[in-house]
Structure formats: structure tokens, C-alpha cells
Backbone:
């Protein structure tokens, strides 16, 4: 992870994990997240329209959210990684660790966030060059796992996805355990939210996380 992306995610350590086949609707969601204070957004490669929607979204973000990092998730192959990087992805997230994807990202100077569920998988991802590793699915391991593995390896930078709820109790549990950031998917967008309501929900969550974020200088 580049210093710029790391700084963005540390200051607002919630990463939305989102997919929708309608580019205009996706842009509304990204804008609401941006207005709420988030600066890192993961669009997922989970539908036939993913690449075309992402291309439109990248253009929207460059015009309206200039300091937001827009990344692509659910990447399994270097070919898919290359296609989304060409479309404007600022970073690549995986649900697994694929050395070929990591190598492609390094060759393109794009931050790479692979995933693991065991300490061995997480450690091996760092040996392949990952500065931040996604722990997925988080609901399988729980905050206690994070606390346990950071005891022998306190330098690990971990982003947990899956099992993170947009509540004070859940966020405090994960961040007290030592995560760097959390990815939140459908639960972040649950309910019949207007863009304004989503913006306010996010702003409230970031207020909860202020004790865990560095003071801006």
C-alpha cells in the first residue's frame, strides 16, 4: 500500500465494499460515502457489468471526489487486475492471495491487498509484498483472532472484511483488537437509505472511530 493510500485509510478507516449494475446509482453511493468523510472505496467485481460500471465510476470520482481512492475488489486473476487498473483502479483487493496478481500490481505500481484467514496465510502474503492484508471472512475468526496474532506480530496491518457491523459495539471490538481498517458491505447500506441518510450514518461511524484514528497534522 502506498503512503498516500495508507494515510487515507488510517484517517477514515472504513472501506465500503459495494457493487451495483447501475452506474448512476453507484455514483450516488460513492458521493454519499465521500460526503460522509470516507476517502477509500472498494467496488467489487461481482457482476457482468462490473468493468463497464467501474469505468464510469472512475471517471465520476476523478471529477467529483478528487481525493478519494477508488479500488476494485474480488479480483482473482492478473488479467482481471490489469483490466480494472486500465479502467482507473487505484488499488486491488483479493479474497485470496494470488502471487501473480501481486506481481502484476507491483509492476504497475498499484497497491495490492490480498486476503488470508490464518496466520500462516497472512504472513505469507506479507512475504509476497503486501503491506496490508485483508482478513476474510472476519465473522469466522472474530476480534479475538486479531488480538492473538498481533501479539507475536504487532507490525501486521490488517483490514477485516465480513462480520463487521456498522455499530459502536462491533467497531470498538475490532479496532480495540488491533485492526488498521474494516471493510463493510451490505450492512453499511442496509435499510431504505437516502444518500443523505447514508452520509449521516457514515459520519456518525467515523465519530465513533475517532479514538482509533491518528490526529491530522
Residues:
Amino acid at each position: 500500500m502506498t503512503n498516500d493510500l495508507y494515510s487515507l485509510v488510517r484517517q477514515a478507516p472504513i472501506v465500503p465494499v459495494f457493487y451495483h449494475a447501475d452506474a448512476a446509482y453507484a455514483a450516488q453511493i460513492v458521493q454519499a460515502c465521500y460526503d460522509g468523510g470516507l476517502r477509500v472505496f472498494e467496488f467489487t467485481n461481482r457482476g457482468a457489468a462490473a468493468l463497464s460500471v467501474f469505468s464510469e465510476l472512475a471517471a465520476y470520482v476523478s471529477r467529483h471526489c478528487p481525493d478519494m481512492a477508488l479500488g476494485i475488489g474480488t479480483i482473482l486473476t492478473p488479467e482481471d487486475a490489469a483490466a480494472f487498473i486500465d479502467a482507473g483502479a487505484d488499488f486491488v483487493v483479493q479474497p485470496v492471495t494470488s502471487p501473480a496478481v501481486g506481481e502484476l500490481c507491483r509492476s504497475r505500481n498499484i497497491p495490492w491487498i490480498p486476503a488470508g484467514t490464518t496466520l500462516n496465510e497472512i504472513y505469507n502474503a506479507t512475504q509476497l509484498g503486501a503491506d496490508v492484508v485483508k482478513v476474510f471472512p472476519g465473522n469466522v475468526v472474530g476480534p479475538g483472532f486479531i488480538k492473538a496474532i498481533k501479539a507475536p506480530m504487532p507490525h501486521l496491518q490488517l483490514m477485516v472484511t465480513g462480520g463487521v457491523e456498522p455499530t459502536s459495539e462491533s467497531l470498538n471490538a475490532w479496532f480495540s483488537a488491533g485492526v488498521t481498517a474494516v471493510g463493510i458491505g451490505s450492512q453499511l447500506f442496509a435499510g431504505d437509505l437516502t444518500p443523505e441518510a447514508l452520509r449521516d450514518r457514515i459520519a456518525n461511524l467515523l465519530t465513533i472511530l475517532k479514538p482509533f484514528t491518528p490526529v491530522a497534522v
User: Anything to note?
Assistant: The mean pLDDT is 95. The beta strands are 14-18, 40-44, 69-73, 92-93, 112-113, 115-116, 133-135, 158-161, 181-184.
